[in-house]
Design a protein that fits this description.
9 helices; five-stranded mixed sheet; alpha/beta; homodimer; 13 strands
Chain lengths: 307, 307
């Protein structure tokens, strides 16, 4: 049997076929923003999926289902609720149902992208064998997926695990977040947040992306190194706060910033241990995803099917 | 069948026999601090429990087990780890084993006191029927018990749910906490924390307990009312942060401060809703325990037996 996995992002929608061993045997993508019309989007993606299945020499009878990771997706209803970066209007978009109709009625499960990433790590990645861990995705925003006793935490409405929106700065001048509040973790520790810090600090230097800050730091630029230290410090303090909630065995970091290596990990680990409540000190690992970027999103979403 | 319940606190150890319907059919207590010798403590309490059983006209064959709620108790090992307010020395005290030996070998389960309270509310109180809720005990400290999908969250080591130690003030002048860090929720929102605030604000007034602040507020003292507002505001903001973790249906408040009614609940509810991430707004109830004080601790601990 095979599973289909799909990751819906503000920029790209990536999808593919995954076998039981976790190998992506075929994948494709579309630009999400090219399809402001929802019906056209679902039809186009479904056609491309059918082509992939045909190309792989298999049929719908060999497909156990489709797993979708998407921002603001609810696991319980199979809908996307008010996702600010997706092009479709409406409070609640029943994507699971729409795709199932186009794809021979196969079961479709949805969850938010960070939860999908957590499932991917648990099924195929560094979290294999862990019962209690928290996935933190450091991308455009900060996403999270919480696993307790080997199970994804969905909460009453399927929206649990929005740890990027823990308030880490309660001062009136704290940064404004896309969610409408101030001081959320993601305004400081996402790639976007770090770029914001860099633009404030590195006068006269053009910063196009977090890679620019990384390059400067690797060249020994003291301000750029301090920006990583500060980002790691804020992240580490927030991780220590998350520990008092579920006492996880590990955090798994994923996304652009997580690839900065010790530049970010060292200050994060130090701040986490320093801020940790004594009974939890020295017990929580800080891991980095080892899944290939190109495959991680599809793998994670496909893992929903095997749950 | 019956269950035994025991609550071990820094001041008192309370224990009793509970029937399947949740009625405490007999109870007794000792002063914990009167027994610095662990063996003498276990022997005395066990004798009193045997007397209760005899007095009720039942035998050990009718007892399904003993549940113990105690600070820093681990569910997995049945031990108490480094509890600062208990009189016994040693890193790890195997209380479950010691009591089982004295009580005809009945099964003994332990968890921390706030987790026991959560089980009590779920089995006999306002959380009956809820699948996702967080218990917050506002006493000498702030304790918590997290229930997700109808199950207690214990984490990798049995110590999950220490939400009283979320850091709510990261400034250097934040209050010092018993855990050795600064700015923990419990330094502001426990009864002790509110007394600290009152002593800072109410010059020339002797404050012996949180009841004094309550009485002043009920008499219309503006400063005392503002102390409740501020305590509620801090608590509400922290509750909003907890919501992004597990998206609970409700918080259940218990303990001395929770009995202050709308004086505390109104500012708490307002701050919680105001601080809430938009997708969670208006979805989380703020409930107050309805279990009788005298019975709640024993009932909660006894509920461990039926899990």
């Amino acid at each position: 049997m095979y599973a289909l996995g799909m990751d819906i992002g503000g920029t790209n929608t990536v999808f593919g076929i995954v076998n039981r061993e976790g190998t992506v045997i075929g994948s494709d993508s579309v630009k999400t923003q090219d399809y402001p019309d929802l019906e056209e989007y679902v039809n186009t993606v479904s056609s491309k999926i059918k082509a992939l299945i045909e190309g792989a020499g298999i049929s719908f009878d060999d497909i156990a289902g489709l797993g979708i990771g998407a921002p603001n997706a609810s696991y319980y209803t199979g809908t996307i609720e008010k996702a600010p970066n997706l092009p479709w209007k409406g409070e609640s978009i029943p994507l699971a149902e729409l795709f199932s109709k186009q794809l021979s009625g196969i079961p479709v499960k949805m969850t938010n992208d960070a939860n999908a990433a957590a499932l991917g790590e648990m099924t195929y990645g560094v979290a294999k064998g862990l019962k209690h861990f928290i996935m933190i995705t450091l991308g455009t925003g900060v996403g999270s997926g919480i696993v307790i006793d080997g199970k994804m935490v969905y909460g009453k409405d399927g929206f649990a695990g929005e740890l990027g929106h823990l308030i880490v700065d309660r001062s009136p001048e704290a940064r404004l977040c896309g969610c409408g509040r101030r001081g959320c973790l993601e305004t400081y520790c996402s790639a976007t947040g770090m770029i914001r810090t860099a633009r404030e600090r590195l006068q006269g230097v053009t910063i196009n992306g977090s890679k620019d800050v990384y390059d400067l730091a690797m060249q020994g630029n003291a301000d750029a190194i301090e920006i990583f230290n500060e980002t790691g410090r804020r992240l580490g303090q927030a991780l220590a706060d998350m520990v008092v909630f579920s006492s996880p065995e590990a955090f798994v970091l994923f996304g652009g910033l997580a690839k900065s290596g010790e530049l970010l990990l060292k200050p994060t680990r130090e701040a986490m241990e320093e801020s940790m409540m004594p009974i939890f000190k020295g017990k929580t690992k800080l891991l980095v995803s080892t899944l290939k970027d190109a495959d991680a999103a599809v793998l994670g979403a496909s893992a929903l099917v095997w749950q």
